[in-house]
Amino acid sequence: MAPLSTGALVVFALVAAALTLFVTEWLPPDMTAVAVLVALVVLEPYTGVPARSAIEGFASPAVVTIVAMYILSAGVESAGVVDWLAARLAALTGGDERRLLTAIVGTTGVSAGFVNNTPVVAVFIPLVTGLSERYGISPSNLLLPLSFAAMLGGTLTLVGTATNLLASDLSAQLLGRPFSMFTLTPVGVVVLAVGVAYLLTVGRALVPERIHPAADFTEEFDMDRHLAQLRVREASPLVGLTVQEALEGGVPDEVVEAVEEVAGAGESLPTDATVEEVIAASDPLDIDVLQIDRDGESFFATATDRPLEAGDVLTVRGNRQAVNRFAQTLDLRDLARESVTADLLAESGHPGVLAEAVIDRESRLRGRTLADVQLRSRFDVTVLAVRRGDEIIHDDLAAVELSAGDLLLLQTPLDEVGHLQDEGYLTLTEGPPELFEALDGGPPSLDAAAAVPLATLLGVIALAALDLLPIYIAALGGVVATVATGTLSASRAYDAVSWNVVFLLAGLLPLGQAMQATGGAAFVGGLLVDAAGVLPPLALLALVYLLTAVLASVITPAATVVLMVPIAVATAAEIGVAGFPFLAVVTFAVATAFLTPIGYQTNLMVYGPGGYRFTDFARVGAPLQLLLCVVTTLSVSVVWPL
């Protein structure tokens, strides 16, 4: 085997740095990809990647098609097609868990082959959690299969996942053989069928029940010791103070002095300090006032303009120690025997409702603290707890740095949560029906207008399948039709694109070029062949699948396909067999990164709502990954002989 060139060593160093950044997320993945692109150009004498070649990724057929498909999927979603389908499934299954699971994985799997799977899963999560509560089914039993089915469905067509399009682009460059719309379908159908059968049998038995079926929001988030009720005594300094006045300032001197004295604030506060500032000045008083009850009426604490009166009951969030100090400070009577339940807050009659929302990879809250974004003061939204996998965070919430996959328990007004979702802060996963009706404009229904985006999407698929137009040209034409027919405005079309994914893919494409140009891919392929020893080509094909699947579960699938496709093709060349089967198994392996919640966006989306542990994905996904390794390897070798 020829020794490594200096250029290959430089590229491997960049790969190692990129992998480290992908795993640690010190930089967002898309910025890591852009950094790799810049480094490749700066080190052009070693990498062989000139500036113009480096930025060609932004105009590659794969990236252009991905941009267009995001918009086409948004058009279908905006017409209510997915919501309508979800509602029909709910009506047909009648609460039977097995039928519901079958309907969910079957519908999601097929839909994900043609529509971006992220919005499909986003729509199904609240449907699943709502039906789970209604019929006494643990949402944990349904949400992980939902995500896995969406991933399996992505293998059906060229547009099923972004990595399929990326692999097609690399196949055109390395083998002169891009994918057609249904190139992957013969194997994809087998993969989906086997995967669905597994999820309905073995997988169903392995999925853990992390959330009790009968649990309401307060039970699910273990809020029993973090919600309390306090009665305002006649001597309380809060009597006569309205919430609005408190927000604008003018807290009485005695309140400020009492808080400073009892809580031990380090320095004096101004006499016009707000309630928020008074509480914030004393770290031990980690308290939020949620609701005010008076004579059978309830008022939303952050929105009412009624002055507090003696006898009012305040519902507050805080741990037992903080509640006791708060009550002592402001002369409030702790109603310790009163249990605060989700029903008490849900049946309040005021506009505030309890809801769950997840932080996804594109959320504006990701990497920020609640103190930074000030949801309570800006949107009247209060975060009551944060679930991170099976860990629940109750205390010092303002200082918690939010991560992708975190699930937030919110008290929110009906008319504000839509702003948070529309502006990219969070994705609503569960709440009362009226909350989703407020977001969607009413119960899901289908009218003649829905035919336009559906016909547009089907037209794009047909044009590409019949080879009348390249997929990226057909998809761009579909974008024009989507905007021209009024399905989406131009601004909403741009907003529908996950630009971080675009930069991630475009930034990584020149890395594959550098691996090929410097001989790095051929070197690793040679090592793989040597390591395989006397293994036959079919076994080596399976080894490439497993290596790719593990890598894709640790870093992004996009990064994995760029790294592994050149290596797989070089490996095939080393042993003298066709390169396309090796490229195909890489494509299927990266689309099914089951082993961790961080490998794929939909896994992250269900991580919090299902209450899963990190290891649950390997518990259910590892046997499926091994099964699909055998099934995919054999199917690929039959459809595309070695």
TrEMBL record:
Ranges in a coiled coil: none
Gene Ontology terms: cellular component: plasma membrane
Transmembrane parts of this sequence: 30-46, 58-80, 100-130, 142-167, 179-200, 471-490, 502-528, 540-565, 577-600, 620-640
Keywords assigned by UniProt, alphabetized: Membrane, Repeat, Transmembrane, Transmembrane helix, Transport
Superkingdom of origin organism: Archaea
Keyword Transport appears in the UniProt entry: yes
Sample GO molecular function, one term: monoatomic cation transmembrane transporter activity
Residue span, RCK C-terminal domain: 244-332, 342-426
Compartment(s): Membrane
Pfam family, one: CitMHS
Membrane topology value: Multi-pass membrane protein
UniProt-listed GO biological process terms: potassium ion transport
InterPro entries associated with the record: Cit_transptr-like_dom, DASS-Related_Transporters, RCK_C, RCK_C_sf
PANTHER family: BASIC AMINO ACID ANTIPORTER YFCC-RELATED
Protein name: SLC13 family permease
Provenance organism: Haloarcula salina
